[in-house]
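Weekly puzzle thread! Below is a chain. First person to post its structure in C-alpha cell form gets bragging rights.
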Amino acid sequence: MRIGGTDIKETAKVKRLRTTRRMVITTTAFTALALAGAAVATANADSPETNRSKEFTTTVVNFGAYTSNIEVKDPKKPEDRDPTVDATNNTLAVSPNERFAVATNSYSDRLVVINVRNGRKIAEIKGYVSPRNILFAPDSKSFTVSDSARGVVDRISMFTFQVKQRLPLGAGVFGTAQSKDGKWLYANNAAADTVTVVDLAHNRPEKVITGFAEPRQGVKLSYAGDKLYVTNYGAGEISVVDLKNPDSAKQKIDGFHGLRALSVNRAGTRLYAANSETNQISVIDLGTLGPITTVDVGKTPYGAALSPDESVLFSGNKEDNTLTAVNPADNTVRGTVKSGPKGYLKGPRQAISFSADSGTAWVLNEDLTVAEVDVKTLEVTDLLGQSRN
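Winning reply:
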C-alpha cells in the first residue's frame, strides 16, 4: 500500500531498523559505563547444573564518585582495614531457594559464592575493603552487601555477579535488615550513629533515624514489620524503633555486656542477644522489656540465631570453636556442636543461617568455608566452599 508515493511497509521497516539501532547504541553505552574497569563473569549463577572444574573471579564495578579511593595494603590487624569502624565481623546469606550461599568477613577483599547443593565454591567477587552484611532478595536472584569503608550498599546479580545498583550511604554503613517483601532495607551506620531507611524498589534513601550509639551488625526487623531492634554496641543496649512513628522516643533495653547478635521470635514476645564478654545469651521479655534469664554458653558468643520453627537457638562461640544449642521452650542447653570427621568449626561468629525446615544450619568459618550442621544430631555433616582443583 502506498500513500503519497511512500510505501508503508518500507517505512515501517526503516523505523524498526532505526529503533533497533537506537536500542543497540543505548545498551552498548550503558554497558560500557556500567562495566568500566570490571572483569565480566560469563557464568550464570542460577544454573547449578553448569559446573566448572575451576572457580572464577569477577571484580565489582567502579561507579565513579560512588566508589571511594580507600585502599589497604597488608594491615597489621584485621580491623585496620576500615578507618571508620574499629571492629571485625563475618556474614553469610543462603538464598531462599537454598541453592547458593554468599559469604565474607570484614577483613576480606572479596565475597565467596558457594553452590550449596554440591558444596563447590563457584565464584569470588573482588573489590571490597570492609564488607559487613549480606542479604538475599526474596526471589533469590540478587543480594545486597554493605561495605563500611567504601560507604556503600551494593545489589549484585546472581546471574552475572555484577553490581546492579549502588547506594552511597556513607562511611560506616554496617548491619542491614530487610522487609519480607524485599522492598525496604534498614542500614545501620556505626560511624554516624544512625539507621537509614532505604526504598529498594526505587533505590533511594527515604529517611535517616538518629539517636543510636555505634550500631553495628545487630539489627532485626520484627516478623510483623512494625518494629526495628537495633544493637547499640557503644552503649550496651538495644533500641526499639516504632517504624510507624520512627521519630518518636525509642524504647531501650539495657544490661548487656559485649552486645553482639540478636534474634526475635515470630510472636514478638521474646528477644535473644549474645553477650560476648560474659559468655551468655540474654532472654528478654518484649512485653516488659525486661530480662527473663541468661543462659551460659561457650566462650565469646557472637551469634544468637533462632531457627525458623523456633525449636533451637544457636550461639556462635568464637573462641572455643563451637555452637551451643539452646532450647527456647525452657532456655536450657540442649547440647554443643563441635568439629567432627566430616567438617570443622573455626571462629564461628554471627554468620549462622537455617534451612526453611529448620533441619540444617550453615555456619561460616573464619577461612570462609561453611560448616553444614544437622540440627537434630548437632553434628557437622559437611564442609562447603573448599577450593577444589
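Puzzle host: Confirmed. Bonus trivia for everyone else. The radius of gyration is 23 Å.
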